[in-house]
User: What shape does this take?
Amino acid sequence: MERLLAQLCGTSAAWPLPLWEGGTTGHCFTQLVLSALPHAVLAVLSACHLGTPRSPDSILLCRPGWRLRLAASFLLSIFPLLDLLPVAVPPGAGPGPVGLEVLAGCVAAVAWITHGLALWTLAHSPHGHSRGPLALALAAILPAPALVLTLLWHCQQGTLLPPLLPGPLVRLCLLILQLAALLAYILGWAAPGGPRGRWAPEPLLPEGQEPEVAEDGESWLSRFSYAWLAPLLARGARGELRQPQDTCHLPHRLHPTYLARAFQAHWQEGAQLWRALYGAFGRCYLALGLLKLMGTMLGFSGPLLLSLLVSFLEEGQEPLSHGLLYALGLAGGAVLGAVLQNQYGYEVRKVTLQARGAVLNILYLKALQLGPSRPPAGEVLNLLGTDSERLLNFAGSFHEAWGLPLQLAITLYLLYQQVGVAFVGGLILALLLVPVNKVIATRIMASNQEMLQHKDARVKLMAELLSGIRVIKFCGWEQALGARVEAYRARELGRLCVIKYLDAACVYLWAALPVVISIIIFITYVLMGHQLTATKVFTALALVRMLILPLNNFPWVINGLLEAKVSLDRIQRFLDLPNHNPQAYYSTDPPTEPSTVLELHGALFSWDPVGTSQETFISHLEVKKGMLVGIVGKVGCGKSSLLAAIAGELHRLRGQVAVWGLSKGFGLATQEPWIQFATIRDNILFGKTFDAQLYREVLEACALIDDLSILPAGDQTEVGEKGVTLSGGQRARIALARAVYQEKELYLLDDPLAAVDADVATHLLHRCILGVLSHTTRLLCTHRTEYLERADVVLLMEAGRLIQAGPPSEILPLVQAVPKAWADDEQESDSAITQSVQNPEKTKEGFEVEQSTSGRLLQEESKKEGAVKLHVYRAYWRAVGQSLALAILFSLLLMQATRNAADWWLSHWISELKAAKNSSQEAPASTSPASTGFFSPQLLLFSPGSLYAPVFPLSKAAPNGSSDIHFYLTVYATIAGVNSLCTLLRAVLFAAGILQAAANLHRRLLHRVLTTPVTFFDATPTGRVLNRFSSDVACVDDSLPFILNILLANMAGLLGLLAVLGSGLPWLLLLLPPLSIIYYRVQRHYRASSRELRRLSSLTLSPLYTHLADTLAGLPVLRATGATYRFEEENQRLLGLNQRCQFAASAAIQWLDIRLQLIGAAVVSAIAGIALVQHQQGLANPGLVGLSLSYALSLTGLLSGLVSSFTQTEAMLVSVERLEEYSCDLPQEPRGQPLQLGTGWLTQGSVEFQDVVLVYRPGLPNALDGVTFRVQPGEKLGIVGRTGSGKSSLLLVLFRLLEPSSGRVLLDGVDTSQLELAELRSQLAIIPQEPFLFSGTVRENLDPQGLHEDRALWQALEQCHLSEVIVSMGGLDAELGEGGRSLSLGQRQLLCLARALLTDAKILCIDEATASVDQKTDQLLQQTICKRFANKTVLTIAHRLNTILNSDRVLVLQMGRVVELGSPAALCNQPHSLFQQLLQSSQQGARSSP
Assistant: This one.
């Protein structure tokens, strides 16, 4: 190196690059360091910008500033070449050798040519509107000092003094021209000119337009440094990352539409998911293996060069240039390794996001195409949330699976080079741990699978619980069902406990291994008769550290791959479910008769593919165009199944189904109306364009105009999820309006009249079914047979068979329970009156969540901003438990202290050895390579000079004889043993602590959610609450502990490191203040954005969950109306927003990583440089320098690990924050005081309302306005009233689901507001309008609290005419499926009635409980209720009129006030009474329908 420099510069080999010559800088130094180097930097920076994309509106004629800079660059590229002419022509014109001048001139010419091209590219890109990147302009000015110094040299030499020599004069002129051109360049940048006046300078890292597209079209430099992320991070630092739209747009290759297209090209139905993913993204992913390989190889340059450098310092016989090269190699290897590893991590994350986008998209598409065999919604949501993430862990694990063994092999080889055969002892121990790790990994995987099953069950139950929260609160089952959730959680935690303790074993093995392996290697080495040296010890320690990483990580990598396999299988099973296939389901030929719309022939249908559930058989059915077909029959006879079969939602086992105009779809109104969380108008339009006239007609036909006039924002009012803020009647009518607005030819209407009162039912029949839809074909299921008098044909179903079809006059008498006259009265005030009434109150209650007139119910999910608050850390500390948390910290410090003690003892031992060696007068035996024997390690890679490095056997006469060695080894082994015990203690305590925290946080969350008022659930989508119970709880269970463990280890490691450095090498601490400031600034800039991006990622995940749950619930309607494509687009939009946040978060992590790595590389270079300077001064102690360098290598790693682990911990703590937000901030139901009343305080059953006023929100009219009445014990009270009169509000106040504004409710003279809610609700019973069943057995649904014996359960089922059905299903232990879907809606209502029959409550409330039951069954049920509740107080809200007429008294409400109260007979005889009007209108409705 010295000779080469001396030859190039024409100097002596002893001082090849003189810094100062003849009163000015050395010319060689000027040309190489101040000219060639800056020009090289300029060339590289300019080349980075050559790929900048051209702007679509690029200016053909550049602005003056750009033109001036282009011209200057062109001239500056020519002048250096012209400058070579006088140099080359003899005699040379100096001042340096020709070779040096040619090298400097050529580098300058190439640099300015490259720069000119880059300027031209930038001028025609979006940068053309500004000055371009500042970094580029600064790089162009870097060569200026060299030109100025050369000019000074000319002045000193007197070039302009006579005699004037042509050569130097020409060179001086060219030099002046170069300076002038550079000045012109600076002027062009400073004063760009042009029509826009004064330009703002472009910042060093260019601010993109908002919102910018990530990385596409960026230069290499920008990609490597993530400069394109600057605008996003700046917004984060200013606190402007508030919504997903604030993040940068996705690059083209991550866009959901591109991903869907790329994936679909390789996907077909029935294909293997992994094959399709490999076809779409696999090749690109495998290519990243090359980056991984290069990065791994460069990782070894650190220890090797460290060894060479320490050896150089120790021997002191090599030329300085070798030391310089080692130091430069150390720095260069660190920088290049950092860049490669960083790019590898970034590209892998991009491929992961590509696969994620494709997997989530295909999962949603599959959900849209599911046939009748559908998994529960909770299971599908888990596939979306948990399994897709686990599957994608494969991307990180696969390359590690081959990279780690390679790393291991190379490390072992280098260890062999260092300590010879002594490494075998350590290797044997390490290899013994591989099967142990394998066993642990297998056990963890098995437990993981079980844990996922329990998690599935818990989330599924939670989803059902949230959907039926109103009924749960009415019945006071929060504790019973909460206990069921807790039971699932306990099983889940049981498996998690196994996983975490096995994890602890792995952590222990990983942490204890380096020390144990080092002990074994060094002991073996010393016992073999060799002497330890600084070089050997430090290099071996560095290599052992490198050995541990692959050994520790390998089981986790395998575990990650196995987990991915488990999740892949789960997703594959879902994707392999049979599809809804209209082409195969329906006959390809249209019906035989042109006038026939629908034809079924010999068709057998079932809900499952093998036909084990009740089958539906239609021997022959033909429906002509324009017909109204009525379908009647008992509960569970298969009416809904027939409509589902026509809509293609059942399995067709045989026969034919032919539908005319199938491609146009159906108008479908299901028995349980499906309503979206959207405005009423959006629900009705359902994606179809708004047609004002048609819309008005539909509202009129569906009797919605009056309802909308009551609502706070009319049709812009948002309704809750599944329409919870509407009454049953309103939901049914909105669902009907949606079907009507779609303008189809064939309508399938499943009992839309069940939930509405007589007035509204008559209106719907005449204006809608016989009016707007008169020209269409309609199939109408209903139990209200009087409305089928106008039907063309009536079908009678029984036990899944079509037993008779004919005109109404033939069929209806077979199903009517009572004479016609009774039927007139019977239907009087179908509970829908009531139910519609529920609406205004409910809506007011929910709609005012934001403001009383906005109509906006759905609140944007709240998102905390800024750093994670201290109270979140405190909450987690409390969840772990104070004593346990302190014990964890203490064991951690103890572990670190013993580890440091082991290191210190080792260095002490080495210094003693060195002192002993120096003091020993014996010369070491000279050994030739042949005579060193088997035990002499060949240091091929480490020895700087010869191929073999001699090894000195310990002299027996030396003071450190075998007893000394025995002493040192014993102490070292003892310290290591104590360290191992502390490590084990810390691992076990940590596992116990995080399990404790996981249990406590979930318990608090569940308790709080279950005690929250119903108004919260009306305004909050289920997906949002479920996200807490699935994703956030999973994060607290698994992700947070993992990263927190790393953070604590890093913090302890850093403390120990600083202690050692402070005591051993105080001068190194001088580097810490500036380093700390840089680190602090970088991490603060990053954390501000990282937190918000993590929060936004969580925030954008909830709508994905909600959308999928919504889709699964409304699948039949989506398909019937042909809205699947629109829902698919919406899913892509939501997925795109989530991917934007995920991508931005990943890029930000890499932004931080590259900066920390480069700062670390700079620190290592600085220490190496200082060591070289000290070596030159004769001050360096090789042992101390080796120690400091190895510590410096780990110091930067620790600091960067600390920042990234702290940031990730903070990001994960967002989950704790979100759980805490619900656990602490959710409103609570007022609990009341536990009065000492004893268990049987409600003995009579009297109910008294005293001047009760209820207002849902300030500014709204009173829902109940001074209601006062008394119900005597055992009295049967019917409650009637038109829509909005306040009937449902009475029940809400009675059960204290809402608290009255004033007034009191007394039960047996006890004020209900003084009672505990559980005490109050346990004494009341309700049969709700909407049956609520959950996944579980018949027994669990009938008796959630487990209070009754089987005999009582069977008796209740018998009384509700359900026993035969339950026996056929398999008895009380038969599973009901999600939401009780194995029963029909009528049967579900009967099961809820059976539940009420079991209660000992003195007061029973019936809220339109048998709307979906046929008349015969209803009559029997009424008799059962009369008999069973003969001595109980019964409040019946507007059920079928016969029950009202049989009541002791009837309460009539209007506008929230009691207007009439008396016996039915008295009120009927009272002229102009409101009750009489209700009776008359219902009878007229019934009569006018024939």
Summary: The longest strand covers residues 596-606.
